[in-house]
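Try this one yourself first.
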């Protein structure tokens, strides 16, 4: 029979005053004298103060407990008592302790650099900050599954090894696959387009790889995408779904992780305000006009928006903004021509990017998908690709093609924005970047 254990959060949440409890965890902080011991115990759910005396514990247990280093694993037994000065308002009056494994001197102390902490991520992941971020991340990905399944979408899992580029050959990771070269996936999209002719509405949360030689606080070489694809939908319809999905995620995190948001010093009213606001949709051409008229930046029509332009644009919006109809020439081969772009001086695509406020950039990107074979082949040739390598993808247009659209949501970018993180590397357990492959 599995032994029942209470977690610290249970003790703090429930009416346990006066109850005898047994808690498992790690020493988070410790201090004391020759007669009294004060230690803070942590587990995956929180922290609690534990107080023991030499009289209650006996000389042997007391002296052993006093000798323990931070991160030693212990089982603490004692009675719950209210104390307004203690974290959470309660403490454990310790009357017994078992040492599971004593720790060596912990190599992480105060005021160490971010790079050192990333070098020690296998230990730093125990910090309250990263523990809170990972709990929120779990809520976020769980909310994605609940959102799409609640809308009747089917989860569809794509391959990680792919024979083709989806987002441009310059960011492909090449892999030795037995006796030939293939690539790590840039997106599930091409395979999702095959699946919608069977399942119609699909989604997934899966790893994605981009060999971008960027060292910014917004880029990772390995990250997670939450993607959706639907038959019969236009790109304007999937924009509405993306807005609803993000609001659903924010609402779920506010409901389930208020303590974690508090630890991270996140303005929860700021997040709550996004649920009430209407989120604007503007064209790329309108975005350039705003940048010129309000932002003092004149951008040549036809150029993709860079980080600096996106950040400047978002200074004029207090909720996520969707920019549609980017220039066709700057877009990937599968994005079709938009026929109704009356404000644009050149051809635009049926596509969109959703930008987050406060300098977090693009969090969602999507489009309708080109259904015309000749147009697809022409776009591939312009990108220097051989259409013969995409024969299987062309088959999707030969056998009963229908209008379809989809998007990808960057899990780490969304998490970084919600948690107000300075660096996206803290939004993933073990970041992989241009310079970092360890631990």
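Now uncover the answer:
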């Amino acid at each position: 029979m599995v032994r029942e254990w209470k977690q610290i959060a249970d003790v703090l949440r429930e009416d346990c005053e006066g109850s005898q409890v047994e808690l498992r965890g790690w020493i988070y902080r410790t201090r004391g004298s020759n007669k009294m011991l004060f230690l803070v115990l942590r587990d995956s759910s929180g922290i609690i103060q534990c107080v023991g005396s030499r009289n209650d514990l006996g000389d042997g247990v007391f002296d052993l407990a006093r000798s323990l280093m931070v991160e030693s694993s212990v089982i603490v037994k004692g009675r719950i008592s209210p104390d307004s000065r203690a974290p959470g308002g309660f403490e454990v009056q310790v009357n017994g302790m078992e040492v599971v494994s004593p720790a060596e001197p912990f190599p992480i102390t105060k005021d160490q650099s971010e790079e050192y902490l990333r070098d020690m991520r296998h230990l730093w992941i125990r910090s309250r900050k990263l523990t809170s971020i990972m709990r929120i991340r779990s809520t976020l990905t769980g909310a994605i599954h609940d959102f799409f399944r609640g809308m009747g979408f089917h989860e569809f899992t794509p391959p990680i090894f792919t024979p083709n580029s989806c987002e441009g050959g310059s960011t492909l990771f090449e892999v030795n696959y037995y006796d030939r070269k293939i690539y790590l996936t840039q997106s599930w999209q091409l395979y999702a387009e095959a699946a919608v002719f069977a399942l119609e509405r699909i989604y997934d949360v899966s790893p994605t790889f981009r060999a971008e030689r960027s060292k910014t606080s917004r880029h990772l070489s390995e990250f997670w995408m939450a993607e959706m694809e639907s038959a019969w939908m236009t790109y304007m319809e999937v924009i509405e779904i993306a807005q609803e999905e993000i609001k659903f995620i924010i609402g779920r995190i506010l409901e389930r992780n208020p303590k974690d948001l508090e630890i991270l010093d996140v303005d929860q009213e700021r997040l709550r305000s996004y649920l009430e606001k209407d989120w604007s949709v503007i064209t790329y051409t309108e975005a350039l006009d705003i940048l010129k008229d309000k932002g003092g930046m004149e951008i040549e029509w036809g150029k993709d928006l860079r980080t600096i332009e996106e950040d400047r644009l978002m200074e004029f919006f207090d909720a996520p903004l969707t920019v549609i109809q980017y220039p066709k020439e700057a877009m990937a081969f599968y994005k079709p021509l938009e026929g109704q772009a009356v404000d644009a001086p050149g051809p635009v695509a049926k596509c969109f990017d959703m930008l987050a406020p406060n300098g977090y950039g693009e969090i969602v990107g999507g489009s309708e998908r080109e259904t015309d074979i000749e147009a697809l082949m022409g776009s591939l040739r312009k990108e220097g690709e051989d259409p013969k390598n995409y024969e299987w993808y062309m088959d999707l247009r030969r056998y009963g093609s229908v209008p379809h659209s989809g998007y990808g949501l960057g899990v780490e970018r969304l998490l970084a924005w919600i948690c107000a993180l300075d660096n996206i590397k803290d939004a993933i357990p073990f970041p992989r970047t241009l310079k970092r492959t360890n631990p």
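Discussion: The CA atoms of residues 200 and 231 lie 5 Å apart. The two ends are 37 Å apart (CA to CA).
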